[in-house]
Amino acid sequence: MVNEFVYCPRLFYYEWVEGVFVHNTDTVEGAVRHERVDTDGEPLTPAEMLGDEESGKARSVQLASDRHGLIAKMDVVEVRDGRVIPVDYKKGRPREEESGPAAWPADRAQVGVQALILRENGYTCDEAVLYYASTTQRVRVRVDDALLTEVISLARNARAVAAGPIPEPLVDSPKCPRCSLVGICLPDETHSVAHRASPDDLMQPWLLPPEQGAAETPPGSVRRLVPARDDLRPLYVVGQGMTVGRSGSVLQVRDRERKVVQEARLIDISQVNLFGNVTLTAAAVQELCRAGKPIAYFSTGGWFYGLTGPVGPKNAFLRAEQFRKADSPTFCRLVAARTVAAKIRNQRTMLQRNHVEPPRNVLEMMRSLARKAEDAATIDELLGIEGTAARVYFEHFAGMVKVEDGEGTGGNGFTFSFEQRNRRPPRDPVNALLSLAYSLLARDLTVVATMVGLDPYWGFFHQPRFGRPALALDLMEMFRPIVADSVVLTAINTRMVQPGDFVRAGTAVSLTPEGRKGLLRAYEQRMDHLVTHPLFDYRVSYRRVLEIQARLLARYICGEIDHYPTFETR
Which candidate, 240, 369, 399, 495, has a CA 20 to 30 Å from the CA of 459? Predict the structure, then answer.
């Protein structure tokens, strides 16, 4: 970890303190190269038995220094005339200097630690070697007192950093694009938000009152250092009586007659979602947990029950800070006020974009309610403002449904008329669609909150209640209109879901399997849709936006940024 500390103290903190590690192409290729190097060979002869004329080569040598609290696994240790030379294999190329190829500082520190440990174990070590695979060059590093003093100091400094708060991210560094943890660190995004002087600077210019104008753009641009979309896709199983099993690295979905109806490679899926009476074999559960893929359970009608997944993030410090902040009424009110205001503005945007004829007085009322939310003194006051805004919004929701009441009416008599929001159970097709869309969004944000290291059940606006993912619901509020409501409107207006895709049981209305598939397709299309991030001005999918938002909340909780930024669209 000393080389990670030299490369970037924040990277070291993530991997050593928080136990976070993510593979990218560089780390995977490096691991493959090390597999070739780490073949079984002769063990390293103990120092006291090493003769002056002995030569040879040992692989995968692990030694430790109790005095300095260091441990190292060395790729190769060459023995020449009784002296040892640690050799470390690197994927890239050496640093170019006037005198010729040279070791990078982080690589130099790494072999310096190895040399120190070898000396502590009684070996004579005067030099180390770095082999750079891209150029097939060996770069020698002289082992002297200056190098050993340097690595001892680095180890001491690394321990001091590990005992304190997380270091700040690097500023506009060329190291960041190749870092495997750049999607977790968010260096440019964190700096961009941290350099905005007030919450108003986090507000998009088109949402500011005319007299305020636009906030000054912080120096430097925000680079999009993560992929716009995730190549992985969720697997949904909605057929009743089906079984999901594992065959090697492939998941197989079988019907009641044990016939394989679908296959999906584990490396291609992000999560598994089971609706109703679907069985998952123990072998499949174990492999999904090993691969870090969550399993979500829903009722037949789409009610989100819960998750099975791997052991969560090891960052107990973030969760401890989350619990401390949740005990602060002021902090809870600030997060809740920003959340509710963003939700109301996004509801207003939905009416502006999609209503046949959005009433001006309604739009002005929504704008006014958003401002009131930001100035609210208590959570109870915010609940009242949010409730008023929701009532006004849903009173005009029908104006965004472009299918006429009688158009496409199914034989069961259902239409897409909408009067008011109702649930538990939903009593008309539009509310059935809304309930399922909200369940899907709650699932995604529960997964995201857990992945980031937060406790999804301990919120700030939604107060804790047994079995309720309060923090996931907090994160969900601003995305309800622009993700879930948008999905429902798209499914209806583009006829991805038809009136014949619903059934009634008593007063409850639910979707048929075909209707659920239609909404799931609309939901996944929305999550893959690219949107320009209003704060950072790069294009990413909504799925990626959810993760960025959760990480920004974590930054705010830990005090890395002074204001909580929200996601609001034009």
Answer: 369
